[in-house]
């Protein structure tokens, strides 16, 4: 069917040039990945701040991923640089794939290629028998550690306390991740990223309208596994 998902056989077979035509031939691969990006608020907020990095959203819903695609196309067109300019204008560095991010992440991203991985307001899957559907699990963490470079950051945020505890515990227990406080990240200059994590996404704005809590937990991918 039209809606069948196709996955790259390996990162080398990904045609990034068609996703980022302004960067064609640069051999760059995405450095920021937004998993379950929804309507794309984070990507759109971060893209102009990191003009030299490629950003990729992954979204499983057909209409939602199409919406983000159209949104990016429109932003590229309305912000196009004047004729003759060598700077192609903003939003050339952001794109989206329709994908089930719980499958084949390493088929998209080369080993150690990501410096940031975002899980913003993921679906909570409240019932215990549904916990295996959660986007953070020991198996998936091994994949995330593989595609993240040492020093890279996993950002998680949710309005569901139970899910927050779940993500935090699993990340804490995984030997290649180390908890990093919001203050430490702000001191490193990652404040603008954190601000976008809190409030640039559609779900984050909804939580704000409902005066809900937001639970943040960030982890650094460390070079050598912790011995516990
Ligand atoms: N991160 C966005 C935000 O903060 O507005 C969206 C949050 S929404 C609650 C969760 C999103 O994850 C939905 O758009 C859903 O379709 C997507 N999603 C759920 N499971 C997914 C999967 N396995 N792969 C890719 N996207 C997924």
TrEMBL record:
UniProt signal peptide: none
Keyword flag Membrane: no
Catalysis performed (reactions): guanosine(46) in tRNA + S-adenosyl-L-methionine = N(7)-methylguanosine(46) in tRNA + S-adenosyl-L-homocysteine
First-listed, main subcellular location of the protein, grouped into a coarse class: nucleus
UniProt EC number: 2.1.1.33
Subcellular localization: Nucleus
Pathway: tRNA modification; N(7)-methylguanine-tRNA biosynthesis
A GO CC term attached to the entry: nucleus
Assigned keywords, A-Z: Methyltransferase, Nucleus, RNA-binding, S-adenosyl-L-methionine, Transferase, tRNA processing, tRNA-binding
Gene3D superfamilies referenced in this protein's UniProt entry, alphabetically: Vaccinia Virus protein VP39
Domain of life where this protein originates: Eukaryota
Active-site residues, record numbering mapped to chain: 123
InterPro entries for the chain: SAM-dependent_MTases_sf, Trm8_euk, tRNA_(Gua-N-7)_MeTrfase_Trmb
Keyword Methyltransferase: yes
Binding of S-adenosyl-L-methionine, residues: 36, 59-60, 100-101, 120, 201-203
An example Gene Ontology molecular-function term: tRNA binding
Membership in a protein family: Belongs to the class I-like SAM-binding methyltransferase superfamily. TrmB family.
General function of this protein: Catalyzes the formation of N(7)-methylguanine at position 46 (m7G46) in tRNA.
Known partners and oligomeric status: Forms a complex with TRM82.
Name this polypeptide is given: tRNA (guanine-N(7)-)-methyltransferase
Phylogenetic lineage: Eukaryota, Fungi, Dikarya, Basidiomycota, Agaricomycotina
């Amino acid at each position: 069917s039209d809606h069948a998902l196709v996955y790259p056989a390996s990162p080398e077979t990904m045609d990034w040039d068609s996703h980022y035509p302004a960067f064609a031939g640069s051999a760059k691969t995405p450095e920021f990945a937004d998993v379950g990006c929804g309507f794309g608020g984070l990507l759109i907020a971060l893209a102009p701040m990191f003009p030299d990095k490629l950003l990729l959203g992954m979204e499983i819903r057909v209409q939602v991923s199409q919406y983000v695609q159209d949104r990016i196309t429109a932003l590229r067109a309305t912000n196009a640089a004047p004729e003759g300019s060598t700077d192609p204008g903003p939003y050339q560095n952001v794109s989206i794939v329709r994908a089930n991010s719980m499958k084949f992440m390493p088929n998209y991203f080369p080993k150690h290629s990501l410096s940031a991985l975002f899980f913003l307001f993921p679906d909570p899957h409240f019932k215990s028998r549904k916990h295996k559907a959660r986007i953070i699990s020991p198996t998936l963490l091994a994949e995330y550690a593989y595609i993240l470079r040492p020093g890279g950051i996993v950002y998680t945020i949710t309005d569901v306390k139970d899910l927050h505890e779940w993500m935090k515990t699993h990340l804490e227990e995984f030997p290649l991740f180390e908890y990093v406080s919001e203050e430490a990240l702000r001191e490193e200059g990652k404040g603008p990223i954190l601000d976008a994590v809190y409030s640039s996404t559609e779900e984050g704005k909804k939580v704000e309208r409902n005066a809900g809590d937001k639970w943040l937990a960030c982890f650094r991918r460390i070079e050598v596994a912790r011995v516990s």
